[in-house]
Write a structure and sequence with these properties.
heterodimer; A: 419 residues; 10 strands; 55% helix; B: 225 residues
């Protein structure tokens, strides 16, 4: 039987039950709309949260860890080399925090083709001196340009400009919390004291907000040179090298390589933030589950309506069969009805889903943790639309399959004799 | 004679529910081209059962059925559907017109299923058939806007659309008044004389049967005359 005839009969039956058809199609439309909106929203949120960590965290961090020596002297003596040696009360090694030969290491890493960029860092404990009070804090010596390029430093500056850190000598960018505690504003001079005791005045050129209270209450930034001066260290003293890779998934492998080559501690992002992938995965899983559940419910709606239609149309099915339509033809007609509902409902759902996503994307969303985000995040991923389309096709096909099968099995003799 | 169109060979049928009852016993008869035959009998004598077997819709029987010299026993469901589509026209007591379609479309449906002619030609042919039955003015209406007699005439037009070898009618006048019964009979008669159509009617209306060329009388599942 040609498709046109099947289609015409299917359409005529659909139009005869217009209201039920619309209800069934609305079910599909609603579920597809929600599916798209939910996944896009969840996807946007995941991307945002992943971005938070991935953008702000180095993929690999090279540093010297304070730890006990791996090999105690007793292990190296000829007499006890092959014994199990138990040493109690082992203390950490007196290791300096600065990275040995940091310039050569940075040069070598910069030449590595797998590396997108690197940024040096000095971290040190300090006191902020304000009046009679000393507040403990943490100072980060950074290269402002590189920090901004690799870790979007500028996005988190809520007052002043990050580049002033470089342009103004002896300048500092304070965390929002500590600035508030010390009651200082842009342009004020504050005093800080590092562990070596020599107090240094610094000019406030910016206020920084990470969104994490803990950090904002302690942390501040200066340029590398200022920090080196502050700590009375030479101009090649740095404590950390932050590396950003082209491909983040290579981080553990490359970290292990650096650890071996440079004889230094290297921490990769996956090890440092292992809980993060899990969170994203679970969120996606939940949204897919909800979306698919909605679709299955819509599928039951279609199943119901087709069953009812077949029950009402037993006479029509009987006469179609009597006049030469085979069971397969009849089943094809009802499958077409189901797919018609699915395809039109689904298409409307895709469009409405897109519109709903756009609307969500325009709802204001201000949070102190994310100063650059002004509206709810949406991931406009074409893949979601493909998945939704495919699912609506499949559910309606299966919802139509059993009623169609039932229709094809209708025995015209029983129907006609019953009259 | 070579013009045998329908042949029933030792057809028997047993209903097993609720208990085994043999409703047809060794029914043998044949129908020639251009014959106007009626199957008569009391209610429950198996005449409708026989008609449904002859129509290929009921396949659960013993014996053999040949339509146009071809045995129907070996054919599967889609093949039988094609046979019905091409070679048999049906008229039932109830009209079974689809209210979703216009009168013309109802007549066209089996023609479109056959696909022998284009949609335009099928439409033209359907209109011609309606003309033969004198209901061409109702072509654009929906079946539920028609009177009972008109509906039955449209149903006959639908039976004729594929120029079937045989028209089978099950109590075609059972729901009609005397005047419409007359009309239907005259239409059948006209088809016999003008188009050499073969018609087999199952009826318990003896007046109607008496006017046909041949009466096949049934009792207790066998042909007695």
């Amino acid at each position: 039987m040609n498709f046109k005839l099947t289609w015409n009969i299917a359409v005529a039956l659909l139009l005869a039950h217009l209201r039920q058809t619309i209800v069934a199609a609305t079910g599909v439309t609603f579920s597809i709309t929600m599916f798209i909106a939910l996944l896009s929203f969840m996807g946007g949120l995941n991307k945002l949260l992943d971005g938070l960590v991935i953008n702000r965290t180095p993929h690999i961090r090279l540093y010297n860890e304070i730890a006990a020596a791996r090999h105690q002297p007793v292990d190296l003596t000829n007499a006890y080399r092959h014994s199990y040696n138990f040493v109690s009360s082992v203390k950490p090694q007196n290791k300096r925090l600065g990275i040995y030969n940091s310039r050569a290491i940075m040069k070598a890493i910069a030449l590595d083709p797998r590396v997108q960029g690197l940024s040096p860092l000095i971290t040190a404990q300090i006191f902020y001196n304000t009046g009679q009070v000393n507040i403990t804090g943490l100072i980060n010596g950074i290269d402002p340009n590189k920090e901004n390029e690799l870790f979007l430093f500028g996005d988190y500056i809520i007052a002043g400009k990050f580049i002033d850190l470089k342009n103004t000598p002896n300048s500092i960018i304070l965390g929002k919390g500590i600035a508030k505690k010390m009651i200082v504003h842009l342009g004020d001079i504050i005093h800080v004291t590092p562990a070596n005791g020599n107090q240094v005045p610094l000019k406030v050129v910016g206020i920084y907000q990470s969104g994490l209270e803990e950090i904002d209450n302690k942390q501040s930034y200066t340029s590398i040179a200022t920090t080196q001066k502050l700590l009375n260290e030479s101009n090649n003293y740095i404590t950390d090298i932050q590396v950003k890779l082209k491909n983040i998934s290579e981080a553990p492998k490359i970290a292990a390589y650096y650890r071996q080559v440079f004889n230094i501690d290297a921490m990769d992002i996956q090890t440092a933030n292992s809980q993060f992938d899990t969170g994203s995965f679970i969120r996606s899983l939940i949204s897919y589950t909800v979306g698919v559940t909605l679709l299955i419910v819509a599928g039951f709606g279609i199943y119901n309506i087709l069953n009812m239609m077949i029950y009402e149309k037993l006479d029509s099915i009987a006469i179609l069969k009597a006049t030469g339509f085979s069971g397969k033809d009849v089943s094809r007609i009802f499958s077409t009805i189901a797919l018609g509902i699915g395809i039109f409902g689904g298409l409307a759902g895709l469009i409405l889903g897109f519109i709903l996503s756009v609307i969500i994307n325009h709802i204001p969303f201000n949070t102190t943790a994310l100063p650059t985000i002004k509206t709810y995040p949406i991931d406009f991923n074409i893949g979601f639309y493909f998945i939704a389309g495919l699912f609506s096709f499949l559910t309606t096909y299966f919802a139509g399959y059993f009623p169609s099968k039932k229709a094809s099995k209708v025995d015209p003799v029983i129907i006609i004799r019953g009259k | 004679m070579d013009s045998i169109i329908l042949e029933a060979l030792n057809i028997s049928k047993t209903f097993y529910e609720p208990k085994a009852v043999k409703v047809l016993r060794d029914v043998n008869f044949s129908l020639h081209k251009g014959e106007f035959a009626s199957i008569m009998g009391k209610s429950g004598c198996g005449k409708s059962t026989l008609l449904y077997i002859l129509s290929t819709m009921d396949t659960d029987y013993e014996g053999d059925l040949r339509i146009d010299h071809i045995s129907m026993k070996q054919k599967n469901e889609p093949e039988l559907a094609s046979v019905r589509n091409e070679k048999i026209g049906f008229v039932f007591q109830f009209h079974y017109l689809l209210n979703e379609f216009s009168v013309l479309q109802n007549v066209m449906l089996p023609g479109l299923r056959l696909g022998k002619y284009s949609a335009e030609e099928t439409e033209h042919r359907a209109f011609e058939k309606l003309k033969v039955l004198g209901v061409e003015t109702e072509a654009k209406k929906k079946p539920n806007q028609l009177s009972g007699g008109q509906k039955q005439r449209v149903a006959i037009a639908r039976a004729l659309i594929n120029d079937p070898l045989i028209i089978m009618a099950d109590e075609p006048t059972g729901n009609l008044d005397k005047k419409n019964t007359e009309i239907v009979f005259n239409i059948f008669n006209e088809l016999i004389t003008n188009y050499q159509q073969t018609i087999l009617v199952v009826t318990h209306d003896s007046e109607f049967a008496r006017k046909t060329q041949r009466i096949i009388e049934m009792e207790d599942g066998t042909i007695i005359n």
